Amino acid sequence: MARYLPLTALRAFEAVTRTGSFRAAAADLSLTPSAVSHAIRGLEQMLGTALFVREGRSIRLTGEGETLMHYVERGFGELQLGISNISARGPRLLRLHCAPSFAAQWLVPRLRKLLVETDRLEVRIVADTNYTRFVDDKFDADIVYGASPSYLYGTSGQQGVVVLPLGAEVVTPLCAPELAARIRTAHSLLSETLIESEVKKVRWPAWFSANGMIAPEPHGPRFDRSFLSLSAAADGLGVALESMLLAERELASGRLVRPLEGICEDVTYTGHWLVFPRAKRYSKSIVSFVDWLAKELKMNIDYALIDVEARA
Q: Is the pLDDT assigned to residue 38 strictly greater than 50?
């Protein structure tokens, strides 16, 4: 048993497991690849076990390496939390990448509430349809729409991410109140202008199929963002098929209504996920944001992915 913790070597080990290569870890630590390799070799000799399997230019953790990674991540995470808790009372920064419609329709309208209810959190939001890969430390987290984050990011290997589904969303026809009176059945929609959201995971064919019908050929206006479709529907341009989560404000104000509520079947699906690197799961800004999201969405987020100590 070592009389002291080899912090330099453990830091090199953490960087290699996080970045996936000796070269990337060296760049992250401002060291040479040979220095990182030497630190890992020394750590393996001290522990008397191999931590990585080297396969050409690629590496992967051994079973012992996986075990050590769990404790090293937790240890550095606890240090990070401790330092942030006693450091100067400045703001805690959260750099968030977000799907545009979720940002515009759900998050930004709650931004003041988020800042009031979380301790010293400062939020910077970038909204576009790209997916951040967390390779340049530009973002701390990403709210993703569309394909499964397990497909987009991968949840195995040394560059693991935490993936938290943000609950089920109900997708339903929405329109301005003046149009609702003439929409009594699913067949009523066949004579209406149906607004198309081109990048949505659930579109009109899926809704009509859920109601035992074949969707008509598209003939209405098309948009590539849900907030545009919702705005067009509220202005009376036609009927949009959108998530009630994203339409909360319009439904609450009465600008949009559900003409077929209780009459037809709606489609329920998981549309958004919160994704962040495993290495950041101890970050105070991430922990605060996850707690707040869970409360706002009235859901139980799987905290098994985030150690309980990180929220203490």
A: yes
Rounded Cα–Cα distance for residues 155 and 148 (Å)? 11
- Spatial CB neighbours of 158, under 8 Å, sequence gap ≥ 6: 16, 17, 18, 19, 20, 59, 60, 61
> Quick check: 47 and 10 in contact, CB under 8 A?
no
Token code pair at residue 128: 């576009």
The residue type at 32:
T
Q: Is 249 helix (H, G, I), strand (E, B) or coil?
A: helix
pLDDT at 310: 41
CA–CA separation, 252 and 248 (whole Å): 6
Q: What is the pLDDT of residues 76-109, one digit of tens each?
A: 777 776 666 666 565 688 999 999 999 999 999 9
> Which residue type occupies 233?
A
DSSP 284: H
Confirm if 194 and 238 have CB atoms less than 8 A apart: yes
As a whole number of angstroms, the distance between CA 114 and CA 28 comes to 32
